[in-house]
Amino acid sequence: MYLSKDEERMLVGEFGYAMQKAMEILIALGKIYDAEKLIPITSAHISGVSYANVGEDGLEFLEELASDGKVLVKTTLNPAGMDLDRWSLMGIDREFAENQLRVIDVYRKMGVEVTCTCTPYLVNNMPKLGDHVAWSESSAVVYANSVIGARTNRESGMSALAAAITGRTPLYGLHIKDNRQPTVEVRVPQPDGEFGFACLGMVIGRLVGDGIPFIKGMFHAEPDELKALGAALASVGGVPMFHIEGITPEAKEYADRSMEKLVVTEADIMSIKKEYTSEADPDLIFLGCPHLSLIELKKIASVLIGKKVRKKLWLCCSKHVKLEADKLGITRALEAAGATIVCDTCPIVAPVRDLGISVVATNSAKGAWYSRNLNNFSVKLLSTEECLREATE
Ligand code: F3S
After folding, report:
1. Which CATH superfamily includes the segment(s) 5-177?
2. d(Cα 338, Cα 340) in Å, to the nearest integer?
3. Looking at domain 276-392, which CATH architecture does it have?
C-alpha cells in the first residue's frame, strides 16, 4: 500500500502515540481489502459508545489514545448507553452512569463532538455529494451513501476513530465509484409513510443480503422515510447503500443497466408486521430508531395533544433536535401528554433489561429486529399511529 512521506512519519510515531496506533489500524484494514493508498476524509462518525459495549478494556485503550490524540476532521458520536443529563429519570444506576460519562469524557478530550445520535446528518455533520467520509453506524452509513451521495464503507467504531485521528481512510469498497453500482433491480409498490418504508426495507434487506438494490416504482419519498428504509435495509440485510429511480442522487447513472430483477408486492410489505405480534402488554413503547427528526416530533405532538399517555412512551432523538423542539414548545406539549423525550441513547444500546423491560412496541423495523434478536424482547411492530394509540389507551 502506497504511503506518502507524512504517512510514513505518522506510522513510525513521529506525530505521537495515537497517530501511530491509528495508522496501524488503517494500514491493517487497507491490506485486508487490498487498498492502493489512503485518501483524505471530510468527516467521521463513531459508533460503539455505550459503556455496555466499550467495557473497561475498551475504555483503557481509548484513554491511551486520548493521551496525545486529537481528531483532525469533524467527528460526531453515536448514541451512548443513557441520556447523558437525565439518566436517573431513565432508571440507570449510578455506577453505569459514571462509567458511561468516563467514556464520553475521553471522546470529548480527543475533540469529538458529543452528539450521541445515529442521525449525524441532522446535527450538522452533513457531507456533500461525492465527499469521502468514515462513518460507522449502519443506518447512518446507508443514508450517507444513498441519500446524500457521500462515500463511506461500513466502518467499525475503532476504524472510524482511527480515520478521524489521521484524517484518512483506505481507498477500497464504496469509496470507489465502480463498487457503487446496483447489483439487483427491485420493483416495489409505493410504500405508505415511514412505517411502510421501514417494512419495505426489511423485505428488500432479506432479498438482497449485502447487495445494492436499484429500487423502481416509487414516485416520492421524504427524508424521514428514506431514513426508515435505510435503517431496515442495513440491519436485516447488510445493505451499505441503495438507489431509487428518480429519487436518490446517483440512480440516474444506472437507469439503463441490465441486472437481475425482483418484485416486491404490497402483501410482502404487510407480512412483516405479522412477524412481530407479541400478545403481551408492552412495558415500553419507543419511537425514534433511527433518532427522530424535528418533523417527526411535531407529527407525534399533533397526535398526542389533548391525550394522556398511560404507558411508558420514549421518544428518542438527539439533543440538538430536542433543543429545536424546546424552542417551538413541542417538548412541553409532549411532556404534558406524558411522553418522555430521551436524548443521547435508545432502548437498543441502553441497558433497558435492567429496568425490567421485556416487551416492547415500536414503529421501527430496525428497532423490532434488534429488540428481538439482540435483546431477546417480545416485540410488537406497529405503525406510528398504532404505537401512540397503544400508549394512550
Ligand atoms: Fe439509532 Fe439505536 Fe436505532 S442507535 S438506529 S436508535 S438501534
Report:
1. Aconitase, domain 3 (3.30.499.10)
2. 7
3. 2-Layer Sandwich (3.30)
Q: Is the CB of 132 under 6 A from ligand 1?
A: no
Question: In the numeric block, which cell numbers belong to residue 155?
Answer: 466502518
Q: How far is CA 27 from CA 40, 41, 150, 364, in A?
A: 14, 15, 22, 37
Residue nearest to atom 1 of ligand 1 (CA): 290
State whether the beta carbon of 366 lies less than 6 angstroms from ligand 1.
yes
Pocket test for ligand 1, best of 202, 345, 348 (most atoms within 8 A of CB): 348
Over the stretch 266-318, which tens digit does the pLDDT of each residue have? 999 999 999 999 889 999 999 999 999 999 999 999 999 999 999 999 999 99
User: Nine-digit cell at 102?
Assistant: 468516563
Residue 332 grid coordinates: 412541553
Q: Whose CA is nearest to atom 3 of ligand 1?
A: 289
| 87: confidence class by pLDDT, cuts 50, 70, 90 | very high
Same topology for domains 5-177 and 276-392, yes or no?
yes
* C-beta 361 within 6 A of ligand 1: no
